[in-house]
Amino acid sequence: MKRSYIFGTLALAAIGWTACSEKVSAMTEIESTPMEQSTTTKPAPDFSIQYTTDVPSAFLRAANQQGKIELVEYESKDYTGSMQTTHKPAYVYLPYGYDPDQKYDIIYLVHGWGGTAQEYFLGRGGNGRTPLVNIFDNLIEQGLSKPFIAVSPTWDKDNRSKAWGESCAEAAVFSQELKNDLIPAVEGKYSTYAESTDMAGIIASRDHRAFGGFSLGSITTWYIFEQALEVQKYYLPMSGDNWHITMFGGASHPQETAAFLREHVNASPYKGNGFYVWYAVGDEDVRLAQTHNQALAMGALTDTFNSTNFSYHQKKGGHHDFNAVWEFCYHALPFFFPKK
Fold first, then answer.
1. 6-336 sits in which CATH class?
2. Is the pTM of this model over 0.85?
3. Rounded CA separation 146/141 (Å)
4. Which residues contact 221 (CB under 8 A, 6 or more apart)?
5. What is the pLDDT of residues 21-77, one digit of tens each?
6. How far, in Å, are 74, 108, 151, 190 from residue 1 at the CA level?
7. What number of helices (H) and strands (E) belong to the chain?
8. Scanning 21, 55, 123, 203, which has the fewest C-beta atoms within 10 Å of its C-beta?
9. Radius of gyration of the chain (CA)
10. Residue 111 Cα to chain centre, angstroms
11. DSSP per-residue letters across 89-102
């Protein structure tokens, strides 16, 4: 039985969120915290950086067959310590022709530091259609991806910009909210492969679920990989690293970080093709070292990370902005949810 939650359909603006050049303005989320840059071991000979290509301009414009955005409000807790009840928003993209009698793959995408739940789909002002939604529509309309559901939530209990330390603390425990509250709220309402929204049903449907994020959202994605590998098979970390060893450990301690991730995977039932990490960063991103050093260290551990479950992608000339996010999603989503 699907549970009911408060939701509303939001009108989508007819005019796209892009400028005349169809490029998105740079994101200002650049953390001022220190970061060490270091070298790492050489990856395996067959490991290579895969370079992405620009999103076709037509994909940044509104498609003929447009999906819709709905707001789901759900109850959660402050998992940083108080466990006080919170009320959270999540914005849900439903593909054109969404049919509750069909099953859909789903991806959860988390924003970076200073962001809010609505910014991926409706912009920071919350009143316009972003290019990412147009990309979703066009991928599906052009047959490059099968129809899927996308969710833009927030780790922040108040859905507003917070200081660096508080944001990091909330991102670090978001896996609990994802499993206990967010997935049940969204997939209890919409038709996915989850036959039930208890943990057994969520785990059984993990092959049809993805999680990704940009910057601090990428760090969140690595926390999810570390703490909730059983919940989804596919991962899209963009411009950020795993912090199990230390903050920015992907840059300063890449070998130790990669070794921890190998140990984590090998201790799980998902070694081999039980997961896939589509790792990405712009080659001019201020957070390049975090991603690059960790990716090369992981690529050297071919007994665990190889072409069956791991790839590393760069955007040439890519910066720490939404342009890179849109490009990475354009390439990753057809890989996660191919038409065939």
1. alpha beta
2. yes
3. 9
4. 110, 211, 212, 213, 235, 236, 237, 240
5. 233 333 334 343 444 444 556 777 778 999 999 999 999 999 999 999 999 999 999
6. 17, 22, 21, 11
7. 11, 10
8. 21
9. 19
10. 8
11. EEEEEE-TT--TTS
